[in-house]
Protein 1
Amino acid sequence: MAAAYAGQCTDLFGYGTPGKFYDGAYNRQQHDAHTYGLDLQITAKPTSQLTATLQLGVSQTKVDKSNADLAAALSSFTGNQLPLAPHVSASALVQYRIPLGEGALNLEGNANYKSHVFFDVYNDPYVQQDGYWIGNVRASYEFAKHWEIGAFVNNVANKEYYSDKFDPTSTFGFIRGIVGTPRMAGVEFNWRY
């Protein structure tokens, strides 16, 4: 499966960190931008028990014009990458199902990749995240038609990454960030109707 997309946006609201610009100008940013890309997905089922899915997304997002360009005190955003818009994202999923007694044992592993992103429209080098992979595993047993018990480990390698960052250095003197979810293990008991 493949899908291509393209879009043009006008008057996007751009948020910023207080103190980056004088007189609260960060509240008045509006941008025109474009985005285009391609999503691909391939699923293979080499046996009745094994399924593998690969996904790839490639995108380009840029600010075409910004009202911030009109104010001498503000830096130009034209040509900058939009926030939280990786150029490449990818995932791989492998599932293996083993009939066992009255139910089935399901084994699953997946890995997800996100390339470099900026967290603001300024493309501030201090407010960005390099590309990273996150891997997860899960095993479960389905029984009695609707019941499932499972165990999982998310972020198996305990990769440190940020899901968001912002730069209040002019106010507080340091970069702030929201750390992504660390390694997490758990047990699930599910009923599906």
Protein 2
Amino acid sequence: MSKFPIMALLSLVAFSAACSGSDDAPRAASPTAPPTLAAPTATVAPTQPAAVVQPSPTVAPTEAPPTAPPPTRPPAVQPTQPPQPTTPPPPPAPSGPPPPVRFEVRAANLAFNTTHLHVRAGTQVTAVFQNDDASVPHNLSFNVPGLEHGETCTGPCTVSQTFTAPAPGRYQFFCTIHPMVGDFIVDP
């Protein structure tokens, strides 16, 4: 260890004692000389240099690292009940056959007025065919197993046929005389 810090410390202690105004130390006064301060007497035992306050090593002040704000938790999410329906559920489908259905299909200018017909399986179907082509024969037939072709009539005329819709699937309706075709779709 260097002697410089120890010497500086001893000087500081001596200066501090001199400035404290203590009357413990004797003063020498001279009538002709200006008053001087007497150096304080301190007894330091040579065998105890450790008794003198040792300066601690000087550490340069360091800047504290910036502190991050404490982590925040997201607010707890309370489980919610699913929204309740505001309308009552529809009544169960009636057991038994569906109500009868009536289709009206027209032929004009060598074309049907529709290309799709939908019905539920087991429905009683009445197909009404109206031929608006004057002096032109047409019919309305379905490729349903067991069903004969519809009656041919020369327009203007109207004919009908009634049958029960077959098992679910895609069938066709058509004219057996002209290339007029549509889809007959049977839903479950």
Protein 3
Amino acid sequence: MRVGVGGEHCRVDELPATSPALPRRPPEVSGRGDYYALLHRGERGAAYAVWSTSLRQHLPVIAVPTRAPRPDTPLDLQAIVAPAYRRGHYDIAIDYGTPVPPPPLSPADAQWLAERIAAWRV
């Protein structure tokens, strides 16, 4: 999944840590999690703000930049994705019996996911 929020001199992207869409991984994400959201405010040499998560955690609340002097606006990604999943009937539309698309899950996450799907189907 990729979520982009564009603005004047900023961009927020959420990408899997192993995504080929991010050709050069910023050093700020090293060892931070399986999935992460990055914010780069556009100043040359500025560090990325990083919000990380794993498959087993809720999506993070990230900062959406606004124009000065206003503070950043918090954006709760889980609060957006969860109702979209329910309203979109993805529980019916997705075939949870097929393999997970890339990037591959770790063996522990694959087992955790299989257990969650089995419990959900009961």
Protein 4
Amino acid sequence: MGFSSLFAPNIDKLVAKQDVQGLVKALAHGNEGVRRRAAFALAHLSFEEQAQIMGARALGEFDDAEATNCLLQMLNCMGAQVREAAALVLAQKKGTPAVVAVIEALREKDQNVRYDAAQGLGKIGDQRAVKPLIELLEGPAVKMPVRLAALRSLAEIGDARALPEIMRFVNATLPGCFPDRGADVFFVKDVAKHLGRMGKEAIPALVELLPFGSGFYSPKEEVLAACRQVGPDSIGPLVTALHSRSERERSDAADILNTLGWKPGTSDMVP
């Protein structure tokens, strides 16, 4: 046991002296109670934004109603960076109050807070977030990184009801979104990975993603993995893609069908 674990700092005195450095040091104490009191103390230091940010992050250690309520209150702080930190920590929690709070954070004016909220909802995986994320995707005055975070989270949540909106956004927005054609296909590979978990309903949408890249950047491996998982129901959309106007889509669909062991005139595939 180290020296700092034996001697607990007096949190009340540190707060009275507004000793931010002492409170930050207490976050590393071996005693959970000391760490907890230090985290709450920092979170309430409204005069010191960086201290509040550290307090919010430290509160992530404690999965209880008091810590969650403190973070919820921090969503109303003046500092955008404090609100962002609180939203990010709340996004890692699974309880109903946290989910509702992160959904509310999607309406924030600050784009960074919106981004963290949108991204966090995908990690939580709660289907209550599907409709608010779709509204964010289609809403005005939303920057592209926030839209992309919402799109990724919709795919990650895996609710098939979101498929039409996901593909409408992908087809309308991504082709002209990134001039170098690199960043969008990395993103599409990630979306394809999550869409594959939706089952057979997602196969037509996945096939539509094939033209977005080639070689290392292609989502072909993610589409193949999803087709393997779905089984024979994936053959129809792939065969249809053989007649696509896109040469890339035709080629990738043919490669996937060949890998699956499909033969013309059958609906069978190699297990």
